[in-house]
Amino acid sequence: MKAFNVLFSLLTVSSAALAAESKPLLAVPGKVVFESKLDAVPAAPWKAAKGKWELVGGVWRGSEIPEDNHGAVIRLPNKLQDFVVEYEFKFEGARSTSLSINALKDHMARIMITPASVTIQRDDNDHEGPDKAVVFARFATTLTPGVWHKVRLEMVGDAMVGQVNDLVAWGSSDLFKSTKASPGFTVAGQSVDFRNLTICEASLNPGWEAAKASLPKPGEKVAPVAAPAGKGKGKAKGKKKAA
Questions:
Q1: I need a surface site. Which of 55, 75, 202, 221 has the fewest CB within 10 A?
Q2: Rounded to the nearest 5°, which phi and psi values hold at 198?
Q3: Is residue 37 within a helix (H) or strand (E), and if so which, with residue range?
């Protein structure tokens, strides 16, 4: 009887943990529009703009090519509106990686990740003009190389929620109301592995206002930018549009 009670308690705790993990924040996931374990050689419909993208150990690996003077980039051509993206990644020596979402013209939003930080932001949308990136949150953390970490991005209406493991934040912008395009991965340095990608249509969670109250306010959690570990070539010299 004692053993049964212990087992029941463990099952109850596990169920509660799963329920908390799956509890909606901004978005309620709907129809799956793209799904892949990323266990085959990168090919169409993916478009690799920069870097080396290959299959290593049954998962994708993205690596910057130093001669590119630009981080590795691979994207899907999909246009999206309200959606949820989930995938897993692990550092294999790279300086940073991101999940990047474009507007129909230029960048829109991203989750930028280094081994020491997670940043959720609205991107600079014109590069040559007055617009600037807006950091909603930057968390100091430790993401151990060789260990898989989970990423989730929700975008509905004028809001986004970004999450890496248990680090989560939100922000909003009128830019987010426009069509989203070309979701993709970036890698600065060598290398990052990726697996288990899912993109779903989404609708607004009726309980979003209550869920939002439990999250840090935009700009409330912005840790200082960590000093770079060393010189790199993640960006080209001069002011040019990123891929």
A1: 55
A2: -135, 135
A3: none
pLDDT single digits (tens) 37-67: 999 999 999 999 999 999 999 999 999 999 9
Across 70-85, average pLDDT: 97
Mean of pLDDT values over 130-150:
96
Q: What six digits make up the tokens of 129?
A: 């003009």
Per-domain boundaries in the chain: 32-213
Strand runs labelled E in the chain: 27-36, 47-50, 52-56, 59-63, 72-75, 79-80, 83-91, 96-103, 107-114, 117-122, 134-140, 149-156, 159-164, 167-172, 180-188, 190-204
Q: Which residues contact 137 (CB under 8 A, 6 or more apart)?
A: 118, 119, 120, 162, 169, 171, 216, 218, 219, 220, 221, 222
Query: Is 80:178 a contact under the CB 8 Å cutoff?
Result: no
Q: Is 116 helix (H, G, I), strand (E, B) or coil?
A: coil
User: How far, CA to CA in Å, does 10 sit from each of 7, 17, 23, 223?
Assistant: 5, 11, 20, 36
Question: Measured between alpha carbons, how far is 198 from 177 in angstroms, rounded to an integer?
Answer: 22
Report residue 205's pLDDT band, with 50, 70 and 90 as the boundaries.
very high
pLDDT band at 129; cut points 50, 70, 90 = confident
Q: Which fold has domain 32-213?
A: Jelly Rolls (2.60.120)
The pLDDT of residue 24:
82
For residue 176, the SS3 value is: helix
